């Protein structure tokens, strides 16, 4: 079971990164109705993947890996978890904006988004991608037992 949950965790993490990369590329380009729909779909994949990463990750911590006693005394794990929370909170604004596009998309129209808002969306997604890199570093340190407290 441990291997299955590790696989699911990694699969969801790769899907999350892929969805975030798609959002980043599409939000930089021309915002057509078709591209806006793709962004909306990518954001749904991102949300589902993030939820899966968190749930499966917590199951691994408490039931399938080294145990909570190990992870809760690992500074890289605690930082990784905090970064996941920060990324989740950052993702709220883009999701709200993308969801507001649904009516325009249903009518076959591109949503109207001013350049200032697009720049903010790009910046947030870029920060989320940078957080993913930091999470990967924390995961590598955590797996090697670096930064154990106590």
What's the story with the biggest beta sheet? none
Strand content: under 5%
Poorly predicted runs are none
Based on CA atoms alone, the radius of gyration comes out at: 17 Å
**Broad shape:** elongated
The topology string of helices and strands comes to HHHHHHH
The termini sit apart by: 30 Å
Helix coverage percent: over 70%
- What structural class should be given to the helix and strand makeup? mainly alpha
The number of distinct β-strands equals 0
The mean pLDDT is 96
Number of helices: 7
User: What's the domain count?
Assistant: 1
SSE blueprint:
Layout: H1 2-28, H2 33-64, H3 68-71, H4 75-90, H5 92-99, H6 102-106, H7 115-143
Keyword list:
150 residues, 7 helices, mainly alpha
Can you give me a brief rundown of this structure?
The protein has one domain (2-143). It is built from seven helices and no strands. It has helices at 2-28, 33-64, 68-71, 75-90, 92-99, 102-106, 115-143.
Give a structural overview:
The structure is a single chain. This protein is mainly alpha-helical and 150 residues long. The protein has one domain (2-143). 81% of the residues lie in helices and 0% in strands. The protein is built from seven helices and no strands. The protein has helices at 2-28, 33-64, 68-71, 75-90, 92-99, 102-106, 115-143. Helix 1 packs antiparallel against helix 7, helix 2 (33-64) runs antiparallel to helix 5 and helix 4 packs antiparallel against helix 7 (115-143). The radius of gyration is 17 Å and the shape is elongated. The two termini are 30 Å apart. The relative contact order is 0.15.
């Amino acid at each position: 079971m441990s291997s299955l949950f590790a696989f699911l965790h990694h699969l969801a993490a790769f899907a999350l990164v892929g969805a975030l990369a798609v959002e980043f590329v599409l939000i930089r380009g021309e915002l057509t109705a078709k591209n806006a729909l793709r962004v909306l779909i990518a954001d749904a994949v991102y949300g589902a993947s993030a939820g899966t990463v968190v749930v499966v990750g917590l199951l691994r911590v408490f039931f399938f890996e080294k145990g909570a006693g190990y992870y809760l005394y690992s500074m890289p794990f605690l930082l990784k978890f905090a970064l996941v929370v920060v990324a989740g909170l950052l993702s709220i604004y883009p999701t709200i904006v993308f969801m507001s596009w649904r009516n325009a998309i249903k009518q076959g129209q591109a949503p109207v988004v001013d350049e200032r808002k697009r720049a903010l969306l790009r910046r947030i997604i870029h920060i989320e991608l940078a957080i993913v890199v930091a999470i990967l570093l924390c995961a590598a340190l955590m797996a090697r037992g670096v930064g154990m407290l106590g």
